[in-house]
Amino acid sequence: MEMANRTTVQEFILLGFEVGKPQHLLLLVFFTLLYVLAIAENVTIIMLVHLDTRLSRLPMYILLSNFSWLEICYVSTTMPQMLLDLALSNKIISFSSCFLQFYIFFSLGSTECFFLSSMALDRYLAICHPLRYPQIMSPNFCYVLVTASWVLGFLAYIVPVTLISKMSFCGPNVIDHFLCDPGPILALACPPLPNAPLDSLIFMDVVVILGNIMFAVLSYVFVIVTLMKNSSKGNRVKSFSTISFHLLVVTLYYGPAAGIYIRPGGETDSNVTKIVTLFYTAVTPFLNPMIYCLRNDQVKEALLRLWRRKAVFLKRKVTV
What is the pLDDT of residues 197-228, one digit of tens each? Predict the structure, then answer.
């Protein structure tokens, strides 16, 4: 029976990783561990920022705690379905669930782009305009940036996802991926393909990804130039160390994403696409907390304060 949008496909099969049963088990154990660690790390950052009164007032950590919440949502959009497919032989996902995952996955990805730009803006203001920084980057303004990132992220792909979902899909219904990605989905559409869905998708990819890349790059260029001009050697090394971690996070996210969604043309091997997608959807949320907290004295001091508070609390509890 055909659906209202004339499609004859009512469910998709996610092909996932084409490996043998022993490899399936290894992948299941590895990705489960990766998922649990990613969730635990990001939850730790959220709790640390909210429990420590000093960090909770600093703009960078307000953004970082919200960024960690975003990472939890992002990794949870794809990993549970992928783990379920590895554990079970049934890899079927309904038409509506597939497009819901497509929309949420791209919306969270767009939100991450805007978050990275917000964090680049924070570093730009902190280093290039230190005197005005406390007035501009107030906690209220930080929450405005957070809200704007979420709203813009979830508005960006409404039109492309809706247009693609209205296309006719004649079969086969096998998606050569572990998630509902537009490339493999469009490959299943009945020809001839209308221009509007593809054009709107490419337009949003360019605007969201390239626009935020340019903003982040320009922000960090200004930061580096300012550090080279005004900082002493000791402060310059310390500041460059902090900025390098931000640049590493930006590179880890935008490098694979741009390679997949803003390539000049031509087909990309499906296995390469799966590996690259897996990297920025699962590996990056696991690495980001360690990158941001590595050699971060403020985080180490906050952990020591919380540890002392816990020790004092336990000591009082024992004496009572």
Answer: 889 988 988 899 889 999 999 999 999 888 88
Of residues 269, 294, 284, 274, the one with CA closest to residue 68: 284
> What is the tens place of the pLDDT at every residue in 39-66?
999 999 998 888 888 888 899 999 999 9
Give the angle subtended at the CA of 155 by the CAs of 154 and 161, to the nearest 5°. Answer: 85
Q: What is the mean pLDDT of residues 137-154?
A: 96
